[in-house]
Design goal:
- Its EC number is 2.7.6.2.
- Residues 43-130 form the Thiamin pyrophosphokinase catalytic domain.
- It comes from Maritalea porphyrae.
- This is Thiamine diphosphokinase.
- With 233 residues, the protein is of the alpha/beta class.
- The protein folds into 2 domains: 4-139, Rossmann fold (3-Layer(aba) Sandwich); 146-221, 3-Layer(aba) Sandwich (Rossmann fold).
- It is 20% helix and 33% strand.
- It has an 11-stranded mixed beta sheet with strand order 1-6-5-4-3-8-9-10-17-12-15, with helices on both faces. Strands 11-16-13-14 form a 4-stranded antiparallel beta sheet. A two-stranded parallel sheet has the order 2-7.
- It starts with a strand and ends with a helix.
- 37% of the residues are buried.
Length: 233
């Protein structure tokens, strides 16, 4: 019988030294998911996404959620941890984040298919992106939650977008075709999408007392640059 952990508290249940994969119920590429599983990253399924992982023959480390959409919890092998969280104040994605400690969360199935789920994923980064490294992956892009100053090495002419989750002011930018010097970004006012690198290193400096997370969106092929960045923290 597999482990079944029932909890109503927002506390860490699992800890990993490596990045982990979180699979949600939205659109994802099975081939892309297999690519990341092959890196040895543990796979955590958010509730009913576990059924999709099982159908693909994936090894699952844990299933986390309120368990309202899993078809058959007896289908999991004995080494899969089932963490049932009955609270309804958060999404299953959030439950995965607050239940797991890891240096990086690589998330599939959080974008596409349903707009409301995509918006909920952005909301989750707004809540957790200040203290957890979260990357949302799809077949085209990666969306990384950033809080505070940001610096990364990228090839010239890399598409580089910034999307504010809350109003945020930038003091200066280096390495972008369209600088962000002394600019405030905010939804419905000004955003920073479809920019481009014009130097090999990009530096963003936010104004003082600006701790709120924002999104950096890059082509998905630059995932390893994110891993390198996190490993240097």
């Amino acid at each position: 019988m597999q482990d079944l952990i029932k909890s109503h508290e927002n506390k860490v249940q699992l800890s990993f030294a490596s990045p982990v994969i979180v699979l949600g119920g939205g659109d994802f590429s099975p081939e892309q998911l297999r690519e990341f599983v092959s890196k040895g990253y543990p796979l955590i399924a958010a509730d009913g996404a576990a059924d999709a992982a099982l159908a693909l023959g994936m090894n699952i480390a844990a299933v986390i959620g309120d368990f309202d959409s899993i078809q058959d919890r007896q289908a999991f092998s004995a080494d899969v941890k089932l963490i049932e969280l009955g609270e309804q104040e958060t999404t299953d994605f959030e439950k995965c984040l607050y239940s797991v400690d890891a240096p990086l969360f690589v998330c599939f199935g959080m974008l596409g298919k349903r707009v409301d789920h995509t918006l909920a994923a952005f909301h989750t980064i707004a809540r957790y992106g200040g203290h957890k490294n979260i990357v949302l992956m799809d077949q085209v892009d990666l969306t990384f939650g950033v809080a505070g100053d940001f610096e990364i090495d990228l090839p010239l002419e890399t598409r580089f977008s910034i999307y504010p989750l809350r109003p945020i002011s930038f003091e200066k930018s280096v390495g972008l075709k369209y600088p962000l010097d002394v600019l405030q970004l905010g939804v419905g006012d000004r955003i920073g999408t479809s920019n481009e690198t014009d130097q090999s290193r990009v530096r963003l400096t936010v104004a003082a007392n600006q701790p709120e997370p924002y999104l950096v969106i890059l082509p998905r092929t630059h995932f390893e640059a994110i891993v390198k960045l996190i490993s240097q923290k």
